[in-house]
């Protein structure tokens, strides 16, 4: 079988960046959030298992807290581990710098979304591979959303049919992600926001409920329930 005819799912042409240097104050505990225990393993270990199970992923780069580099490398011998920055953007930039030029597709994935199914990782990668330079997974917003004033009064009800809750991994052509970070002048909560600031389109694919972001102790309980249901 030639390289040009190789099935998409055997290409291993995707690098994934995992910014994992945040402290996770809302989750509590005495270790950074990515190292918190979930069902006997750290969130990072669960996250890396999901990424490694995605057939397109050929490289995983983790940006870890400076004080825990040794511990992270011991937990994740299959990953490239670099020192994270003081912000998420700095961590992503540090991880991106460690990706060999041979990888043209780069995904950015939150370690806190530790139970993301490999199928969602593949869906994002496939959308980039087939021509979309920036791709994000989104879920429909099911709650009624109110815009509030600073003093707590309701200003208006937002039309939720035009809203989406954004997840990760977010996928990019490597040159676009590199340019977005190189030209960033302010902070954004996700990498797609950097691309939006450049005035470029961002494509969406359906998200997955199990790709929830583990932010609070209650989220840990939900994640435990998901793991029990899988087993």
List the helices and strands and how they pair.
Blueprint: E1 14-19, E2 37-38, E3 41-42, H1 43-52, E4 57-64, H2 69-75, E5 80-83, H3 88-97, E6 105-108, H4 118-129, E7 134-140, E8 145-148, E9 154-158, E10 164-166, E11 170-173, H5 174-182, H6 191-197, E12 203-206, H7 217-230
Parallel strand pairs: 1-4, 1-6, 4-5, 7-12
Antiparallel strand pairs: 2-3, 6-11, 7-10, 7-11, 8-9
Summary, kept brief:
The chain is α/β, with parallel strands linked by helices and 231 residues long.
Key traits:
single chain; 231 residues; alpha/beta; Spore Coat Polysaccharide Biosynthesis Protein SpsA, Chain A; two-stranded antiparallel ribbon; 7 helices
Structure notes:
The structure is a single chain. This protein is of the alpha/beta class and 231 residues long. It has a single domain (10-136, 166-230), classed as Spore Coat Polysaccharide Biosynthesis Protein SpsA, Chain A. It has helices spanning 43-52, 69-75, 88-97, 118-129, 174-182, 191-197, 217-230; strands spanning 14-19, 37-38, 41-42, 57-64, 80-83, 105-108, 134-140, 145-148, 154-158, 164-166, 170-173, 203-206. The strands form three sheets. Strands 1, 4, 5, 6, 7, 10, 11 and 12 form an eight-stranded mixed sheet that branches. A two-stranded antiparallel sheet has the order 2-3. The protein is globular. The protein starts with 13 loop residues before the first strand and ends with a helix.
């Amino acid at each position: 079988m030639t390289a040009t005819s190789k099935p998409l799912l055997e290409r291993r042409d995707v690098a994934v960046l995992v910014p994992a240097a945040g402290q996770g104050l809302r989750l509590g505990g005495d270790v950074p959030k990515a190292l918190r225990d979930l069902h006997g393993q750290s969130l990072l270990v669960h996250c890396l298992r999901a990424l490694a199970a995605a057939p397109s992923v050929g490289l995983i780069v983790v940006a870890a807290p400076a004080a825990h580099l040794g511990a992270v490398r011991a937990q994740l011998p299959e990953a490239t581990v670099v020192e994270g920055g003081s912000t998420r953007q700095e961590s992503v930039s540090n991880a991106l710098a460690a990706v060999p030029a041979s990888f043209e597709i780069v995904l950015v994935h939150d370690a806190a979304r530790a139970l993301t199914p490999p199928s969602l990782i593949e869906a994002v990668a496939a959308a980039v591979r087939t021509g979309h330079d920036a791709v994000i997974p989104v879920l429909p917003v099911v709650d009624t959303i109110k815009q509030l004033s600073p003093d707590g009064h309701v200003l208006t009800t937002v039309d939720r049919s035009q809203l989406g809750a954004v997840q990760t991994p977010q996928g990019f052509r490597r040159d676009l992600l590199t340019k977005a970070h190189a030209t960033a002048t302010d902070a954004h909560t996700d990498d797609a926001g950097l691309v939006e600031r450049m005035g470029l389109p961002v494509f969406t694919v359906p998200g997955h409920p199990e790709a929830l972001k583990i932010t609070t102790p209650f989220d840990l309980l939900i994640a435990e329930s998901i793991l029990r249901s899988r087993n």
